[in-house]
Amino acid sequence: xxxxxxASYNVxxxxxxxxxxxxxxxxxxxxxxxxxxxxxFDMLGEQMQxxxxxxxxxxxxxDELGAEELFEQRxxxxxxxxKVVVISFxxxxxxxxxRKLRVKSIYGDDEKQLLSDFSELLSRSYNKGNQLLCAxxxxxxxxxYLCRRMLINEVPIPSILNLSGKKPWEVQHxxxxxxxxxxxxxxxxxxxxxxxxFDIPSSKGDMEGSQVHEVYYKEKNLERIKKYCEQDVVVTAxxxxxxTQQGLLPEDxxxxx
Length: 257
Prior knowledge:
Layout lengths: L9 E4 L2 E4 L7 E10 L9 H11 L5 H13 L7 E14 L2 E10 L3 H15 L6 E4 L6 H11 L20 E3 H6 L9 H7 L14 H8 L2 H22 L10 E3 L1
Parallel strand pairs: 3-6, 5-8, 6-7
Antiparallel strand pairs: 1-2, 3-4, 4-5
C-alpha cells in the first residue's frame, strides 16, 4: 500500500519541503516509556543531586514542590536523569484479510540490554534509505532520548536514529506532531488531544505518562506500563492513517505479539 499525499500534501521538514511517498510497510511506529534513574532524589549520588537541584530551579513548580518531589515527577523526561524501561513499536503488513498492524515491545529493568536489543533490531531490519521511524513528538523526545541513553550505555546508535552528518532531507524520522503543525512552531499538541479530535480511542484509560515512575518503582508493574506504551503506538499509527486519509484501523486488524 502506497502512502499518497492528499492535495499535493507537503511536509516541511527542517525547513525543507519533503514530499512523502512511502509505503506504510516501511514505517516503524514507536513510543518509549521512561522513569527517573532512581526511585527518589536522595538515592542519587551527591554530584548528581547537585546537578538536579540546579535544573529543578528552572522548572515551573520548583518554588511549590522543591527539588526532591520534582525528581519523582519530572526526572524521567530528561535523559541525564532518567532511563528507558519500555520501547514499543509496530509496523503494517499485508494479510489475506487486509492490512494489519503488528505491535511488539522490548522492556525490562536492564536498560542497556533493552537498548542493545532495539539497536540490533533497527540495524538489522531498518537500515534502508526508504524506511522511516514515526513517533508523536519523536523529534523532541523519543529519538534524541534513545540516542542519549544509548551513548550513556555504550550501545551503538543505528544509522536510522543517528542524525550525525546527515542533511535535513536524509533524516528518516516522521513526527505526527510536526505533521499537525503545518509549519506552526508555537504550540505543543498532545497525542491524546489529536486522538479526541479524530475520534481515535485514547490510550489514557488505565494510566497516564505522569504515573509511569510511580507504577514502575512502587507498583513494580512493568506489564501495565508496556500495555500503555503499546496503546500509544496504536494511536500514533491510527493518527497517521487519518492524516493521510487512509481509513480506519479496527481492533481486529491489530496483533500484539
